[in-house]
Design a protein that fits this description.
heterodimer, A: alpha/beta, D-Maltodextrin-Binding Protein, domain 2, 2 domains, six-stranded mixed beta sheet, four-stranded antiparallel beta sheet, 18 helices, 46% helix, 13% strand, globular, B: mainly alpha, MetI-like fold, two-stranded antiparallel ribbon, 1% strand
Amino acid sequence: MKMKKVLSVALAAAMVAGLAVGCGSSKSAESDEGSVYYLNFKPEVAEVWEDIAKKYTEETGVEVKVKTAASNQYEQTLKSEIAKSDAPTLFQINGPTGYNAWKDYCADLSDSDLYDMLLDQDLAIKDGDGVYGIPYLEEGYGIIYNQAIMDKYFALSGAKAASMEDINSFDKLKEVSEDMQARKDELGIEGVFASTSFAPGEDWRWQTHLMNLPIHYEYEDAGVTDEDEITFKYSDNFKNTFDLYLNNSCTEPSMVGSKSVDDSMAEFALGKAAMVQNGNWAWGQISQVEGNVVTEDNIKFLPIYTGMDGDESQGICIGTENYFSVNSEASEEDQKASLDFVKWVFSSDEGKKMVTNDLGFITPFNTFLEEESPADPLAKEVIRYMSDTDLTSVSWDFQTFPSQTFKDNYGAALLQYATGSEEWDQVVKDTVADWKTEKEATAE
Amino acid sequence: MEKAYKKYFWLFVLPTLIAFTLFFVIPFIMGIVLSFCKFTTVTNAHFVGLTNYIKAFSNKDFLNALWFTTKFTVVSVITVNVFAFILAYALTRGVKGTNLFRTTFFMPNLIGGIVLGYIWQLIINGVLAKFGVTITADPKYGFWGMVVLMNWQLIGYMMIIYIAGIQNIPTELVEAAKIDGAGKMQALFKVTIPMVMSSITICLFLTLTNSFKLFDQNYALTAGGPAKKTSMLALDIYNTFYGRNGWEGVGQAKAVIFFILVGILALTQLYFTRRKEVES
């Protein structure tokens, strides 16, 4: 009897103990040097960051953990990761809006080497005297075109232009596109522009990137960098280009709701479309499409013309939404380790080689020599536009868009307009109102 | 002997109690507390009182989602249960290949909601392409798309429960009814249905709560499109939480309201159908 009782107590105790063991996680030994935990934003280069981390650990012995958030899940992942005791020490914010959300966690980087390395220190995210986000790459987007198809068109009799140089305004682009669309069979394409993708979550090229242009010009007119209320005075310019995409495409406007960005890029890669609006990050995607017919020397950028006065001198949209921030809640050692890590990545020979060749980043740092730039054809195009002094690049003002909700609402309205269930005037009215509401909602 | 065990009952309860507290009670209480706070992450919350609840109720998206969810729940609860019962009834008549049919009908239930949503999005878009539209062209496509999806997924599960219920009816009851001259319909409505009332209770409960809480399928099929017109409560909560900086607390408040709504609905339904259950 007594034996049984002892046994049952022992068993129960063992269960409780087992539970306790299950809960407590094994903590790795803390070293004095600190360690780095980088939460990476770009899934397409996840493996490269892991290689860089491995190399850095081999060289310095400092532990670097890299975790990558799934596509479009960065904010969600960061929210849950940063609340953990083993939080990311190095993460990224996407601009002023991102800083607003994460300012409790952003350490002041004004004394860091990385900040000193910046070519243009105005690009960093500042608040008062502090520097809280340091951009680490520059990107550009515009209308990507396939030179081979364009050359084929220029060779046709009665072509509306003789070369790409002739296309330097919206009117010309429209004339050429409409003529190309009418003669699509001769050109062997299904449409001039790839699908205007509007499947759920696939509308960012319009609600964010294309929307950047009218807002940019509105800010410029007012001489500001952000506004609580907009008039959307260049809405017709947005409509110009948006209509052009919709009406001269390989997809009927009523069907755009089922298309994803991948679909559009595949259409472009397979030569079914001659142009597609996207950024330099798209080359990886295009080159990996099975049956890709677009060769490296035939892929180029055209600025997104919207019919503004001065279209001729407008370049492509260049900016960044990738800023490094260091977690201010992390230990001193970890913060320092993180800064040392990024400094190594962007200034050591080993690091720079991987940044240029494997990550393919155009960096804003003075540690990179001119010949140390990526070989990627679209990145080269971005550099070409950056160095062209006759053209003015359009900055990425979409960083100041009020919220994700605003962008989603606008995207939804654009889809309604595309499928013909909403009038353009209504879209404009709702967007102006929504901008104000969303700015107010996130202001507190 | 028994007394000796009783003395140690707390020791036996302890492991489960700890697990329950750690993984259910604490997160639940934290959730309620957070609904009164403004926060970015759970560790930097500060109290703001009822502001979140006021914002939640004055948010037209939330009210739209509530109305849409209600419509969806009513339609899918009725259709799922009617079809599941008809199938169960048919498959307890001794048709050849009964087991094969039962297995096949049950199978959709084993596939995850997100996958189902994407598969059905392809199917529905494929069909609608013939008419030159897509699922997000009109909210009614999304609505019926979701009803079809929900039926397809849940019918099999409910069918199994109904089959179990029908098989439990004592044969003498059915025979007695037949001898007394009851027709097929009479036997169905006067004997079978009252006898499976306990299955109906559980099936209604499951379909009601599942439809009301639907998230994966909604997210994958339409993601609320067009213009949030097909967004259900759970999706609206998700979008509130992640859509705007500083609105995490409002999302949390909506979630608490959501919990209370589901609770009230489920308990009311249980109360009413329980009363109709009979003993054989």
